[in-house]
Amino acid sequence: MADVIAQRTIELTLPSGTQGSIRVRVWAPEYRPRPSAPFWEADVEVAGAGKTHKTNGVGIDAFQALYCALQLIPSMLLMYEDLGRLSWLDGEWLGFPEFKLTAP
To answer: Whole-prediction pTM value?
Structure first.
């Protein structure tokens, strides 16, 4: 497996006031050939509060795979919003870009 190239800790505050953390990690893209086509994949993981979700961004080159992996993070964090308040550096913005999938 490739090396982790980025990691961030998001704070989770439960309604009871209990503090927890969510760890977001991204691995360096790897070339993973398949019979149908050659692809690059960049693994991404969100873990905390007893849950772990790992998937990958896929692309025709390493840059596209990494870009796709970064786009997945906001949607992966949605499963924690029902548990409590998410924050980073004492603010509500978690530092991940929001990608709009609608036409301009």
So the answer is: 0.86
